[in-house]
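Q: Please design a sequence for this.
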């Protein structure tokens, strides 16, 4: 009996140690969006959620819209199937009250104030930081509902992925990267398409029996270098082309994003 109690006590102690280790790992998670500087997620005054690359791979989302559905406080409105126009609402605010950043660069439309998430490839996302609540003091009036910042990947090794599904759907992506002594360069490309099906049945208004297809092509180039012991410079170029057919027409969306970041770390104490 005493031996059984001893083993039980040891098991509980090991479980407590493991739980404390996991809690420590979560506490050490840092975010940069909430205060425009690195800080521990537990010290951020705003409500913050983070999706890392391991989370994205675990969720297995086929597009960015599906990925965002896993974040609390986010509501989505989509007008159709893959590639169709989508609006994102944060904590009940308008879609143009959510500031979207990609690697620190604003990417919202100058006309509508919203961002076309349907053109952002999920396979090229490294990390997502979501900050809920008004951040107009830091980012301006377009951050009334909050901020969604997306960090793109920097491929460092070869990778190929191929998938097929019903309705003649396919998904192909590949990436390659090289690391040097003081930096590296990477490139990733992907193509996704589907012949789809008719968006209406025979009883629908102005029925059109054609299949409504959708296609998307994406390319990402990233590079970084450690200029000296304190300065690191990185650059990225992202291009996305989305072509969606619908009854009586089609839509074509082209997105281009370019960003340069410089991080200076003062080594003085």
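A: Design:
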């Amino acid at each position: 009996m005493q031996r059984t109690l001893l083993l039980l006590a040891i098991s509980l102690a090991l479980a407590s140690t493991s739980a404390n280790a996991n809690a420590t790992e979560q506490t050490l998670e840092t975010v940069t969006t909430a205060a425009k500087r690195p800080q521990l997620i537990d010290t951020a005054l705003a409500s913050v959620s983070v999706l890392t690359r391991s989370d994205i791979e675990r969720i297995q989302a086929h597009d960015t819209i599906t990925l965002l559905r896993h974040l609390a406080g986010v509501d989505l409105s989509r007008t159709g199937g893959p590639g169709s126009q989508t609006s994102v609402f944060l904590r009940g605010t308008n879609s143009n009250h959510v500031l979207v950043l990609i690697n620190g660069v604003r990417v919202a439309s100058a006309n509508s104030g919203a961002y076309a998430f349907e053109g952002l490839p999920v396979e090229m996302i490294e990390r997502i930081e979501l900050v809920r609540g008004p951040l107009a003091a830091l980012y301006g009036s377009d951050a009334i509902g909050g901020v969604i910042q997306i960090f793109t990947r920097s491929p460092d090794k070869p990778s190929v992925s191929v998938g097929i599904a019903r309705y003649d759907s396919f998904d192909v992506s590949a990436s390659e990267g090289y690391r040097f002594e003081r930096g590296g360069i990477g490139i990733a490309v992907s193509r996704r398409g589907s012949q789809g099906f008719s968006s209406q049945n025979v009883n629908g208004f102005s029925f059109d029996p054609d299949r409504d297809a959708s296609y998307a092509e994406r390319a990402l180039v990233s590079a970084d270098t450690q200029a000296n012991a304190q300065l690191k410079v990185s650059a990225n170029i992202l291009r996305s082309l989305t072509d969606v057919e619908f009854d009586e027409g089609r839509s074509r969306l082209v997105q281009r994003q370019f960003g340069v970041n410089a991080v200076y770390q003062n080594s003085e104490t």
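Q: Thanks. Anything notable?
A: The chain has four helices and 15 strands. The radius of gyration is 22 Å.
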